[in-house]
């Protein structure tokens, strides 16, 4: 059987990704947009407050601190591992090729799950927005399919085009939340401003575990900064900076906005308000403190927030697919780069087609776009990315034990070990509260939880097959920066 060697994977005359296109802010836009701050706040924070109490803002800070600790070892390793394969390359270097190949498959499935499920949210959010603004009911499938085409086009264009689009959309969604915050702060809240949300007696309660589960989920995708290192300017500096900017911004912004909406109703009244209408909590607050016109804008910006998240994940998936095609693990055609836009356009077309199949399949089965397409597809993807974060944290000290380096023990041992413990705790919180994420039966939840480990085991099987049938591909897996040794700008 013929094999593809690293030198044969892509001809030296082939187009390459557009190097030097992205600065710190550009990469941060991709990462923060993937998290969809407005959607997370308006759609999920009310549930965190309802189930966890007024200490919910502190939960977002705790999650942010945990992921900042993870980022210490993660970004330190990014200076030594140049691959565009991000997670799987790091894990391969630290834990070996079988685990790395398992991680690669899990990353591919995980990121696809995180994106494709969100087309259900796009359909339901747009439907709700149209109904709220015009009183008209529209079907969700055409909206989702139109979104697939729009996002596919965004991924087809150059990466700097995507960064500019995400910059505009991110300013819109954060701006409307800051407008709400300004209204609440200027008017002094419903009953004055209070710092009780950060008091120990409100943070150290049983409900905090639920808040932390929601909070960790709100950061999903932040680690994708390293996927863009081949297109970054001065990646040794840009990628770590973008990672810390994204984590710091999300942690502080989530905590601040959650605190603001509590002040809009009052410490004693907000839980009752969230119980009465969790989906309307933010809309009610901005109507009261800014005006109905701002609530209408918020409806619109939730749709654009979802689109921004979809485009960010679509770009990340395309680059993972590109890296694996260049590795020889996926078909070579998926590694083609557009000669003018310098984008992994074939990977993007394949991802769009996969999304269309899944979305249409759920519609044909009569599934609810939010309760089933979003939650059932998104949740295993989220768990898969959490597992990848955990494996990457474990890989950091293992890698630095085997190579000569000048990095300090705090970055290479202490921070990764602490992050491993904290991330394992986060996974435990999410899994034990999985019903809050899915609203599904125990049987369905068991399947959703089991998908990530099942995919990883399939990946181990793929590693075994590659070692026997395609030894050159197996031996070269994640050894060199994907494509950089053979591509010329």
From TrEMBL:
<feature type="transmembrane region" description="Helical">
    <location>
        <begin position="282"/>
        <end position="313"/>
    </location>
</feature>
<dbReference type="GO" id="GO:0016020">
    <property type="term" value="C:membrane"/>
</dbReference>
<feature type="transmembrane region" description="Helical">
    <location>
        <begin position="345"/>
        <end position="365"/>
    </location>
</feature>
<feature type="transmembrane region" description="Helical">
    <location>
        <begin position="446"/>
        <end position="466"/>
    </location>
</feature>
<feature type="transmembrane region" description="Helical">
    <location>
        <begin position="242"/>
        <end position="262"/>
    </location>
</feature>
<keyword id="KW-1133">Transmembrane helix</keyword>
<feature type="transmembrane region" description="Helical">
    <location>
        <begin position="58"/>
        <end position="78"/>
    </location>
</feature>
<feature type="transmembrane region" description="Helical">
    <location>
        <begin position="27"/>
        <end position="52"/>
    </location>
</feature>
<feature type="transmembrane region" description="Helical">
    <location>
        <begin position="168"/>
        <end position="190"/>
    </location>
</feature>
<dbReference type="InterPro" id="IPR050367">
    <property type="entry name" value="APC_superfamily"/>
</dbReference>
<protein>
    <submittedName>
        <fullName>Amino acid transporter</fullName>
    </submittedName>
</protein>
<dbReference type="InterPro" id="IPR004841">
    <property type="entry name" value="AA-permease/SLC12A_dom"/>
</dbReference>
<feature type="transmembrane region" description="Helical">
    <location>
        <begin position="412"/>
        <end position="434"/>
    </location>
</feature>
<keyword id="KW-0812">Transmembrane</keyword>
<feature type="transmembrane region" description="Helical">
    <location>
        <begin position="202"/>
        <end position="222"/>
    </location>
</feature>
<keyword id="KW-0472">Membrane</keyword>
<dbReference type="GO" id="GO:0055085">
    <property type="term" value="P:transmembrane transport"/>
</dbReference>
<feature type="domain" description="Amino acid permease/ SLC12A">
    <location>
        <begin position="31"/>
        <end position="472"/>
    </location>
</feature>
<feature type="transmembrane region" description="Helical">
    <location>
        <begin position="377"/>
        <end position="400"/>
    </location>
</feature>
<dbReference type="Pfam" id="PF00324">
    <property type="entry name" value="AA_permease"/>
</dbReference>
<feature type="transmembrane region" description="Helical">
    <location>
        <begin position="139"/>
        <end position="156"/>
    </location>
</feature>
<feature type="transmembrane region" description="Helical">
    <location>
        <begin position="99"/>
        <end position="119"/>
    </location>
</feature>
């Amino acid at each position: 059987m013929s094999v593809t060697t690293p030198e044969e994977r892509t001809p030296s005359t082939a187009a390459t990704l557009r190097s030097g296109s992205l600065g710190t802010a550009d990469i941060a836009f991709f990462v923060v947009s993937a998290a969809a701050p407005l959607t997370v706040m308006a759609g999920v924070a009310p549930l965190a407050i309802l189930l966890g109490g007024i200490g919910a803002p502190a939960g977002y800070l705790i999650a942010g601190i945990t992921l900042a600790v993870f980022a210490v070892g993660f970004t330190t390793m990014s200076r030594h591992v140049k691959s565009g394969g991000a997670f799987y390359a790091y894990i391969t270097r630290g834990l070996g090729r079988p685990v790395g190949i398992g991680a690669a498959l899990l990353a591919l499935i995980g990121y696809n799950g995180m994106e494709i499920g969100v087309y259900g949210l796009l359909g339901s959010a747009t439907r709700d927005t149209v109904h709220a603004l015009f009183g008209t009911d529209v079907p969700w499938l055409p909206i989702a399919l139109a979104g697939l085409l729009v996002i596919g086009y965004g991924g087809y264009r150059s990466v700097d085009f995507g960064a500019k689009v995400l910059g505009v959309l991110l300013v819109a969604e954060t701006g409307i939340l800051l407008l709400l915050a300004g209204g609440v702060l200027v008017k002094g809240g419903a009953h004055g401003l209070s710092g009780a949300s950060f008091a120990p007696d409100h943070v150290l309660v049983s409900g905090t575990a639920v808040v932390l589960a929601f909070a960790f989920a709100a950061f999903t995708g932040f680690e994708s900064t390293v996927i863009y290192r081949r297109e970054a300017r001065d990646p040794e500096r840009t990628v770590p900076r973008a990672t810390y900017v994204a984590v710091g911004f999300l942690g502080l912004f989530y905590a601040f906005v959650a605190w603001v909406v509590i002040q809009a109703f009052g410490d004693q009244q907000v839980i009752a308000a969230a119980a009465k209408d969790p989906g309307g909590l933010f809309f009610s607050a901005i109507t009261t403190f800014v005006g109905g016109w701002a609530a209408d804008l918020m409806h619109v910006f939730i749709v654009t927030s979802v689109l921004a998240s979809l485009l960010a994940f679509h770009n990340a998936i395309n680059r993972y697919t590109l890296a694996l095609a260049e590795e020889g693990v996926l078909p070579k055609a998926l590694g083609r780069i557009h000669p003018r836009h310098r984008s992994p356009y074939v990977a993007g077309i394949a991802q769009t087609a996969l999304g269309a199949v899944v979305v249409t399949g759920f519609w044909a089965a009569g599934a609810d776009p939010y309760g089933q397409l979003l939650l059932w597809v998104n949740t295993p993807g989220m768990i898969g990315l959490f597992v990848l974060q955990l494996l990457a944290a474990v890989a950091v000290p293992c890698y630095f034990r085997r190579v000569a380096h000048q990095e300090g023990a705090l970055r290479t041992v202490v921070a990764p070990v602490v992050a491993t413990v904290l991330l394992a705790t986060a996974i435990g919180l999410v899994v034990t509260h999985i019903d809050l994420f899915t609203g599904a039966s125990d049987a369905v939840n068991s399947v959703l939880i089991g998908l990530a480990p099942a995919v990883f085991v399939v990946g181990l099987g793929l590693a075994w097959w590659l070692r026997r049938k395609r030894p050159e591909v197996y031996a070269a897996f994640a050894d060199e920066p994907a494509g950089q040794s053979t591509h010329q700008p």
